[in-house]
Amino acid sequence: MDNPESHRIIAVSRDLEALGFTMNKTVVICNAGDMDGLWVIRDRMNKGGTKRTDFLVDTSLKGGKWNKVTIEFYEPSN
Length: 78
Description:
By secondary structure, the protein is mostly beta strands. The protein has one helix spanning about 15, and strands at about 10, 25-30, 35-45, 55, 70-75. The protein has a five-stranded mixed beta sheet with strand order 4-1-3-2-5.
């Protein structure tokens, strides 16, 4: 896949699904540096992880951890 981060796809840990973070929902991510912005949930993570998201990015980008990241549902204004 060319430039996978341009698709803005994330996976969420299964515990977040109970909070409404389910497939095909669009979310706004803040305080994650270059990863800030709108993302679409298109995958779920393996069992075991909690309160986590994984970004679909190019293999040249290394993993990262951020503090105080917020994830909210995207509500487009009419």
